Amino acid sequence: MLSSSLTTAKNLPLKRRLCFLLKLVCFVSSVLIFCEFLIYYVVIFQCRWPDVKGGAHMSDKETSASVLKAIILADTHLLGEIKGHWLDKLRREWQMERSFQTALWLLQPDIVFILGDVFDEGKWSSPQAWADDVRRFRKMFKHPVSTELVVIVGNHDIGFHYEMTTYKVNRFEKVFNFTSGKLITRKGINFVLVNSVAMEGDGCAVCRTSEAKLVALSHKLNCSQQKPNHSNKRCSDVEKLPASEPILLQHYPLYRKSDAECTGEDSAPPGEKNIPFKEKYDVLSQEASQKLLWWFQPRLILSGHTHSACEVLHAGKVPEISVPSFSWRNRNNPSFIMGSITPTDFSLQKCFLPFESRVFTIYCAAGALLVILVLAHVQLLTPPFYFAQRLISKHKAV
Q1: How many CB atoms lie within 10 A of CB 196?
Q2: pLDDT tens-digit readout, 343-353
Q3: In whole angstroms, what is the distance from residue 298 CA to residue 262 CA?
Q4: Distance CA 336, CA 100 (A)
Q5: What is the DSSP string of 159-224?
Q6: CA distance 240 to 222
Q7: What angle do CA 324, 177, 291 make, to 5 degrees?
Q8: What is the pTM of this model?
Q9: Which InterPro entries does UniProt cross-reference here (predicted)?
Q10: What are the C-alpha distances in Å from 2 to residues 8, 9, 16, 229, 256?
Q11: Predicted confidence (pLDDT) per residue in 99-142, tens digit
């Protein structure tokens, strides 16, 4: 009987330690699951598709049939084998994959546009490195057949103009079915895809081909819209397209002096806003910008490249939205654009992803609490209640 009591007494501290260890594991697991999985649902669930004019007077069936729901993001910059550390890759790619997959599941867009710089080292990649980057991209940005994915080329995918080669361009086009001057028409809405890296204007082979396609497409669109400067004779044998003013999708923004006029919490930092932009490097040249505006007379331009948000009005009537980077490596507050688009109108809304600083704050607070609990358990740190109780006991004894 005495032996049994001693055994029970010895086992009691062990059970307490195991119980405490189990509680710690549950606590740590809960923090990890929230910060690495649930937080994306909590944040993106708050995003709502914007309404377009007339949408309030339509039935749900009419709205879903006539309004195209589009997600626009930019500059994912998947790290390569040269500059990419494995831990950095693992962290950033997990963040983007969870954000993208959560957005698809919650928002169910009709189409997703990625505005270039999909890869960080596409301009340098060997065939083997390119194949690995493409494999990882397809895993991260997998999508159901009900959602279309359209990818625009950027300078990090094929190199700046001086690095761009036919081989790199063809390699990108083969994977993503992209060609400059390609028209995508969905629900009567015309989207023009532009290889802005090829808008150098120096007559290079890729530039000549790209501009020729854009000019031909411009002629088709203008004839379809019956522009005054296009006679019926010139348009008699031209294939008719939906008479909807096009939306331009490209990587480089049109020419602007700097980001000085850009506002918003995800615009460029104050110290960078007044730095002048370099033509053909930070933005398109003035000449190339005027060509695109004249050729297409777009109702909206969507671009990336600067990693920061900006809204510019060209010629006093054509809005351009610069979409911030989708990667936490470039921003503390990445975001994407949600667009409700019809053949005659559009409405845009920004959806922010979890702030990385807030995730770190949660981890730091959880780590501090964990240390306090462990110290209190091993009695290296006395809980405040017991500490006060001991002081009162000592005072009474004196």
Answers
A1: 30
A2: 999 999 999 99
A3: 21
A4: 10
A5: -STTT--HHHHHHHHHHH---TTEEEEETTEEEEE--GGG---S--HHHHHHHHHHHHHHHHHHHH
A6: 10
A7: 60
A8: 0.88
A9: Calcineurin-like_PHP (IPR004843), Metallo-depent_PP-like (IPR029052), MPP_MPPE1 (IPR039541), PGAP5/Cdc1/Ted1 (IPR033308)
A10: 10, 11, 22, 107, 89
A11: 999 999 999 999 999 999 999 999 999 999 999 999 999 999 99
- For β-strands 182-186 and 189-193, DSSP reports them as antiparallel
- From the list 281, 257, 244, 266, the residue with the least C-alpha distance to 322 is 266
| SS3 assignment, position 307 | coil
Outline where the chain has alpha helix (H).
Answer: 2-33, 39-44, 60-66, 86-107, 127-140, 155-158, 166-176, 205-224, 270-273, 286-296, 356-377, 384-397
Is the model's pLDDT at 2 over the cut of 50?
A: no
Q: Tell me what pLDDT residue 12 has.
A: 54
- CATH fold of 50-226+235-355: Purple Acid Phosphatase; chain A, domain 2 (3.60.21)
In 3D space, the residue among 49, 115, 45, 47 whose CA is nearest the CA of residue 342 turns out to be 49
DSSP lists the bridge partners of residue 248 as 192, 301
C-alpha 102/C-alpha 4 separation (Å) is: 56
Q: Give the span between the Cα atoms of 365 and 20, in whole angstroms.
A: 19
pLDDT of residue 150: 97
Q: Which residues, other chains included, contact 314 with Cβ-Cβ below 8 Å and sequence gap of 6+?
A: 254, 289, 293, 301, 320
Q: Give every CB contact of residue 212 below 8 A, 6+ residues apart in sequence.
A: 181
Dihedral angle of Cα 81, 82, 88, 94, to the nearest 10 degrees = -30
Rounded to 5 degrees, what are φ and ψ at 395?
-65, -45
Cα(180)–Cα(250) distance, rounded to whole angstroms?
9
